Amino acid sequence: MFVSRHLATSAQLRQFAYQPRATPIQTSSFSTSSCHQAVSDSLRQKAQQNNQQFKLNNLFNVKDKVALISGGGTGIGLMATQALAVNRAKVYITGRTEEKLNRVAELYGKDIPGSIIPVPADITSKESIKNLADTISQRESHLSILINNAGISSHTQTTEHDNANNLRKSLFDDPDATIKDWEDVYRTNVPQLFFMTTAFLPLLEKGSKTHHGWSSTVINISSISGIVKTAQHHFAYNASKAAAIHLTKMLANEISGSPESRLPIRINSIAPGVFPSEITTGESDEIQKSYIPEEKYEKKVPARRPGKDENMGNAVLFAATNQYLNGQTVVVDGGIRIGVDILSVISGVNKTLDGLTQATGERQLEQHEKISEAVAHLGSKEVDALNRSGSHFEEEHLVQNVLSGAIVIGNLQLVEYLLNVENTRADINGETPFFGKPLHIAAAWGQADIVEYLLDKGADLRAISSYPAHVSWDEELEYLNEERRHAYRCPDDTALRAAALGGHNEVIRVLLSPKYQPSFKRQRNTYHRAMVAAARGGHMDTINLLRSAKKSASNLKQAQQEMLYEAADHNREALVRMLLKNGADVNFSCRHRHFGYPLAIAAGKGHARIVRILLQHGANMYIRFLFGSPNMNHGTLI
């Protein structure tokens, strides 16, 4: 089966890694002269000199380098401009809007080691590119770095249609879908890479000769949209970025790889994922920056956020200074292609699922987990097609994983579909080894709309706060000391605490809504457990929300001490201060915990500021009874 090479089990890997190998006995003697010589001062000096090569200012040194960046006025171009100029490079920025360029120079070009110089130009015009090259040639004897960043997006089109006529209406009949739109996008995103690079070849070659050990570099800013197979609703843009990546490889081969030329010029591309720019947000603020809310991509990118300016700066400095990098595409996407690659596996899902349902043991669980992650990204029409194809999608364990995966990524439409179509057999109160119960996982991942839908649809109300009767308070609290067994699984058996651990206040408000009238079993411990979970995450607003919702303010001492322990353990400085201000006992020991004293756990974890706060509030440095019972009379001095 085609997925086996990608989804090898841990048992298979162990067998491969530790398989005995027949090795002939070596009879020759080993030379030990180099490693047993006495370390002389001269050898030590050589080693210290070698160490100097690994200093950051040597590894990523762009001091006195001359750079030219197209589209340097906003977005990724501005990020690249800052990364180079702040590190002592002389950076020319170009673009069509002179006002934006001048504003960047005024805002970001003052009081920095390097410089930012605006030079307006239209890189979609060959004549304008020639004039730009002449201008730079008159000002500089060489060029060290050329970053071709300018680009535009295209008209978007929907592809989620269930028949050929509707798909045609969206893709062909749409009046905004024109050949001119394709031409405009291609003209800006592709030809300029060729003409900008070739126009500056003489200056780039001189740049390699000017600085010893340096080869000038061209960096083309492409996109992961040119790598992924999906259209992402903009066919023209993705096609242009794929062309840009391939053009980069051709230029690298013909300019520095061809025996006829072999110019000392490196040509690479950087393929960003989601970064704030005018292409992704449609606007810039008063300092030429764009903004994307982190929560928008929390469930879409493994990094749980869009890219930051400094992440792009890292990539630019790496590509510019690594003299051994040529003809490559550096992908900086927060791991988003992981999901896309899994989705490409699902292109053969009809046959694959058939084999998966017949697999056994660890491999079955591993593959079900991965397949469910991918299938959860599909829409209801794809799932329906799987059912009609007879691909064994009705397999109960698998479909429950798919339901859970849909909840994780917040696909309410797919959740509704799975719970309303008879032959999927999705169980609203079912549980899987990898995900747990639907209500729990929705709470853990902050999917308030799905939580409300599940409760309205008939999710067991007892799942809001109930937990196994045999689990004691101490055992339940010990769970917080363990890492989650699986990244997607609810951390415990109560949806309320799962939401509290993640600081999902909207979910908590839904769970505590009078609409559902939850009758909490062991109500005091239910709220306390949730507060302790919130303390671990440092969610002070969540703690206050739970305290205000609690019917009685009595009996909070135990929970308050547990919260102090969690805050000290996880370096939650503001929460430690709040708890101590509200009367938490700085010398109280949670005896069921290893290192049960707040001071001991903070010191053991190296949280110096927490230690200082605790000592200022009277923490006893001579901690007794650290291990075992009080009559053991053990102690330790911090």
Automatic annotation (TrEMBL):
Coiled-coil residues: none
Positions of ANK repeats: 438-466, 559-591, 598-621
Highest taxon in the source lineage: Eukaryota
GO molecular function, one term: oxidoreductase activity
Gene3D superfamilies: Ankyrin repeat-containing domain, NAD(P)-binding Rossmann-like Domain
Protein name as it appears in the record: Uncharacterized protein
Family of the protein in this entry: Belongs to the short-chain dehydrogenases/reductases (SDR) family.
BP GO terms, sorted: secondary metabolite biosynthetic process
Keywords per UniProt: ANK repeat, NADP, Oxidoreductase
